[in-house]
Amino acid sequence: MSDIPTYSDIKEAAKRIQGFAHKTPVLQSSFFNQRTGAELFFKCENFQKVGAFKFRGAFNAISQLTEDDGKKGIITHSSGNHAQAVALASKMNGYKATIVMPENAPIVKVNAVRDYGAEIVFCESTIESRQESTDQIISTTGATFIHPYNNADVIAGQGTSAKELLEEVPDLDIIIAPIGGGGLMSGTAIASKSIKPDIKVLGAEPKLADDAYRSFQAGSIQPVLRTDTIADGLRTSLGSLTFQIIKDNVDDIVTVTEESIVRDMRRVWERMKIIIEPSCAVPISALLDGEVDISGKKVGIILTGGNVDLENLPWK
Predict the structure, then answer these.
(1) Where exactly are the structural domains of the chain?
(2) What is the CATH number of domain 55-145?
(3) Percentage above 70 pLDDT, the chain
(4) Same fold across 7-52+152-312 and 55-145
(5) What H or E segment, with its residue span, contains residue 214?
(6) In terms of Cα–Cα distance, which of 2, 4, 7 is closest to 190?
(7) Which of 20, 30, 109, 282 minimizes the number of CB atoms within 10 Å of its CB?
(8) Keyword 4Fe-4S, does the record have it (predicted)?
(9) Euclidean distance between the first and final Cα of the chain, in Å?
(10) What is the pLDDT of residue 2?
(11) Which of 82, 57, 55, 51 is nearest to 303 (CA)?
(12) Whether the Cβ atoms of residue 164 and residue 18 lie closer than 8 Å to each other
């Protein structure tokens, strides 16, 4: 595969993950349709294995390793859904996984990674410490590193979600997804523009973590200035690969407030009777707050995951 995946790569990824990843449901809500004056179609990756879309990319990448490379082990650094995805995908392929996690990682996520059979190495809660610990293990074991988003096979796997959505609802006018490191947004953009070239592809981001928005406006990667958004899955900066894909294929990026994120996360729980994590609410808030003109349109929204720390709900 070249550095930038193509739609052919996404189609191959879809074949590869079939029977291993769930084909997640697409739901609608009269409440949200009435509030926006549009027809919204929610692609529910909160029902994916490990509770998040991340399983798609991790499985696609890990399943392509040679047996020799796989036997040396798999490694990544993550405190969130990618950690669980790599742990489970490695186990399903018969490989040992090591996950480097910050010492302050939520215990619920630590326990989930352990339950999937991975070994955890704790480090200080800095990017430098994560990378140093990872590099040290790779130099000792020769393990294969699976980047959370700046990896063409991971991006191709994430693009299968939008492919499924557009196969089920082919006449969408707009598709919107949250942006963290940009793996999902990149795969979504490639799949969507390939299937329906005139579709509008949008990204949504918290105002407190708006590096992708600023990067998109500036035409170059801008640093993360704050990481205190409640949308913990969107605190990461773009990678070189994801930024290039987003710059070339995404139509616009919009931002929303913390208050809106909490409001709409709760609304989904109450009205749709499904659990979503804060990152999922970001694109919903963009639509409800009028950041995008969607009146009379058909809009696809990718709900990225449902892994929530139930001991720390924002409305308790």
Answers:
(1) 7-52+152-312, 55-145
(2) 3.40.50.1100
(3) 99
(4) yes
(5) helix 211-218
(6) 7
(7) 30
(8) no
(9) 47
(10) 55
(11) 51
(12) no
For residues 23-52, one letter each, b for 16 or more C-beta atoms within 10 angstroms of the residue's C-beta and e for the rest, the string is bbebbebeebeebbebbbbbbbbbbbbbbb
The catalytic residue among 29, 79, 161, 215 is 79
Alpha carbon distance 55, 93 (integer Å)? 13
Q: Which residues of 260-293 are buried (b: 16+ CB within 10 A; e: fewer)?
A: bbbbbbebbbeebebbbbbbbbbbbbbbbbebbe
Q: What is the rounded distance in angstroms from the CA atom of residue 87 to the CA atom of residue 99?
A: 8
Q: Nearest-5° angle of CA 137, CA 142, CA 144?
A: 90
Is residue 1's pLDDT more than 70?
A: no
Selected from 3.90.1140.10, 3.40.50.1100, 3.40.190.10, 3.40.50.1470, the CATH number assigned to the domain covering 7-52+152-312 reads 3.40.50.1100
Give CA–CA dist 171/190, Å, rounded: 17
Tokens (6 digits) for 224: 């993360």
- Dihedral of alpha carbons 11, 240, 233, 267, sign: negative
**Is 133 a residue whose pLDDT tops 90?**
yes
User: pTM for this one?
Assistant: 0.95
The reply to whether 72 belongs to the active site is no
The answer to whether 298 is a known catalytic residue is: no
Which amino acid is residue 283, in one-letter code?
A: P
pLDDT at 196 over 60: yes
The answer, yes or no, to whether residue 155 has pLDDT greater than 70, is yes
CA distance 168 to 133: 43
Sign of CA dihedral 91, 74, 83, 221: negative
Selecting among 49, 54, 109, 163, the annotated active-site residue is 54
